[in-house]
Structures are given as structure tokens and as C-alpha cells.
Amino acid sequence: MPERDEDGFFLDRRQFLEALAATCAGLLLGSPSYTAEASSKHPLQYKVNDLVKGMRRQGLILPSERTSWSVYDFTTGTKLVSINESVPRQAASMIKPFVAQAFFFQASHSRKVRYTAEVRRVMERMIQKSSNPSTNRLMDIVSRNGSGRGPRDVEAVLKKYAPGVFQDTRIVEKIPRGGGTYANKASAHDYSRFLYALKHGKLPYSSEIRRIMRLPNHDRIVAKVPSMPDNIRVCDKTGSTARLCGNMGIIEARDRRGRIHAYTMIGIIERRSRAKNYGRWITRRSDAIRKVSNLVYLEMKDRHNLV
User: Fold this and answer.
1) Distance between CA atoms of 32 and 167, rounded to whole angstroms?
2) How many domains does the chain have?
3) Residue 64: half-sphere exposure toward Cβ, Cα within 13 Å
4) Is residue 90 assigned to a domain?
5) Spatial separation of the C-alpha atoms in residues 142 and 270, rounded to whole Å
6) Helix (H) or strand (E) holding 254
7) d(Cα 193, Cα 186) in Å, to the nearest integer?
8) Which of 44, 69, 197, 293 allows an S-S link to 83, with CB 3.0 to 4.6 Å?
9) Is position 168 within any domain?
10) Is residue 262 included in any domain, yes or no?
11) What share of the chain is helix, strand, coil (3-state, %, to 5)?
């Protein structure tokens, strides 16, 4: 029988064992298997680069806008795309799974920090619904259990327990009224390392974060992507402001023998100033990310004989 916490939330034995294993010495210090840069450029990288250049010519991405792209194939252990991967960019709501991870680091190291039913609901609203008040509330919880420095405690916790993962992460502000958060930053490589560690259970409560990130949401790397089959599964988080459009996640698809193949897909489009027509801008940039995701899936389909 699993242990029940004080608010009635059953603690998953698997989560407890994950947390215990993930806190072992040296586990999160930056294993070369997920921190190393791609050793050589894969043909897919050139295809993505050409596609992005074409979208710039079409006006889907402006010449002044900066982009980052990253794709990692879990089946072969190969980095397929690494374009501007280590450049810190605005994180927007893609920072929210990092906030959740900071809390789980604290929960796995202190008996005073409990993953209660209420915290679970806050975390689900933060990631699935992209609730900004829920994000700020969880930042406050992390800060109360830290040194009282607000959002900076989130960054401090992440870099204390997993410096090899969150190398380019900068968390300095809560999300202001209206959602215009521009100061928090992370690189596509940070997201790639985080997703790698999450997929392999190298972080405390990995299975719980994956569960929450798999809850239905409005993603840009599977939804409305023409080549994607209905049975594909995605674990992701988007980021949207008048200055950034992004999505990072793990995509899982089956081959013709029923085996699952997973890969990361990360796309970020950033501009220096606010878009005058936010609705039009975010829609077109979302479509640009979908075009890249479509190209990547077709490559993975050929590589692994996907359905």
C-alpha cells in the first residue's frame, strides 16, 4: 500500500525510488551522453537550415528574428540537429517545467518539502494550462524553502543539483501581469539536456513531470503537423510572448513492428521587440515550427520505418 501524505495524495513508490536514485553522488553533474555537442553535422541539419532559409524568404520568419533548433534521436543516441543550440534565448513559458524540477529537487532532499495534492494541482495548472499565477506561486514555494530570493532561488536550486543540465539557464523574474516575461532565459541545449535526463529518469520525479507534460495542450510540434499520425505521443511545453514563439518536447512514435522510437524536437523563434500584431505573429511562427517538426518527423519515419 503506498504511503499517503498529509493532504491525501498517494506518494508513488516509483517516484520515491526515482528521487532516491537521482540524488546519488555524481548522477546529475553533467554526463557526456547528454551534455556533449553533436560530433558531426547530420544531413537533417542542412535540411532544417535550408527550410528555415526558405521560410525567411517567404516572410514566415523575418531576417531580424533569431532561431534555435535541436533534435536528438534516442534510438541511435545521435544529435541530428544543433543550430544555435547553446545561445541563451528568452524562455517564456518553457521555463515552467524547470520550476517544477526545482521543487522536486527540494522535495527529494528535504522532508519538510512535500508534494501534496494541492502542489500537484498547482503544477498541473502551471504546465498544462500554462497558468502564470500558478507558476509564480510555485516559485514562491521554492523560494520559501530556499534563501528567500524569489525566482533566483529556482535557478540556484537547479544549478546546485544539476549544473551540467541547466548551463545556460537564467531565472530572475516572476511572470508579470499580462504574461510579458522576457528576462528569464535558457538555451535549446538546456532543454535538450533536460529532456534527455527526464526521458532516462535521471531527475527526481521524472515520471511525474513526464505525466504532467503529456497532459493535452496546444503544442506546436505534433498538433496540426501534416505528417503526424493520430497515435503519436508528445511530452512538451510551449512558450509564447510577443517576442518569442517556442516549443520543446519529446515525441514518441511507433514503427511497423510496434516498437516505440523517441526523439526530442526543440524550436525557438525570438525577436528583439514586441510584435505589433501578436495574434498574426504567433500564428505564423507556430506554423514555422510545425513545418520544421514535419520535416524532422519524415526523417525519423525513414530512419526507423515509422508508421
Assistant:
1) 13
2) 1
3) 6
4) yes
5) 28
6) strand 244-254
7) 11
8) 69
9) yes
10) yes
11) 45, 20, 40
Q: What is the DSSP letter of 167?
A: T
Q: Would the pTM of this model clear 0.85, i.e. be above it?
A: yes
DSSP letters, 105-130, are HHHHH-TTS---HHHHHHHHHHHHS-
CB proximity list for 59: less than 8 A, separation 6 or greater: none
Supply the pLDDT for residue 228: 96
Query: What is the 8-class DSSP label of residue 10?
Result: B
Q: Which amino acid is at 49?
A: N
19-28, 38-47, 113-122: range with lowest mean pLDDT: 19-28
**Residue 32 one-letter amino acid:** P
Give one DSSP letter per residue of 57-111, joined into a string: HHTSS-TT-EEEEEEEETTTTEEEEEESTTS-EE-GGGGHHHHHHHHHHHHHH-T
Nearest partner of 167 among 98, 113, 230, judged by Cα: 98
Q: What's the rounded Cα separation, in Å, for the pair 190 and 246?
A: 14
What one-letter code names the amino acid at 169?
A: T
Q: Is residue 5 part of a domain?
A: no
Cell of 4: 499517503
- What kind and span of H or E run contains 264? strand 260-270
Dump pLDDT digits (tens) for 147-174.
Answer: 999 999 999 999 999 999 999 999 999 9
Show Cβ contacts of residue 124 under 8 Å, excluding neighbours closer than 6 positions. 212, 215
Report the CATH number that the domain containing residue 228 is assigned in CATH. 3.40.710.10
Of 8-12, 27-31, 177-181, where does mean pLDDT reach its minimum? Answer: 8-12
Block residue for cell numbers 535540411: 47
- Of 267, 265, 299, 263, give the one whose Cα is nearest residue 78: 263
Print the domain residue range for 184: 13-304
Burial code of 133-149, b = ≥16 C-beta within 10 A, e = fewer?
Answer: ebbbbbbebbbebbeee
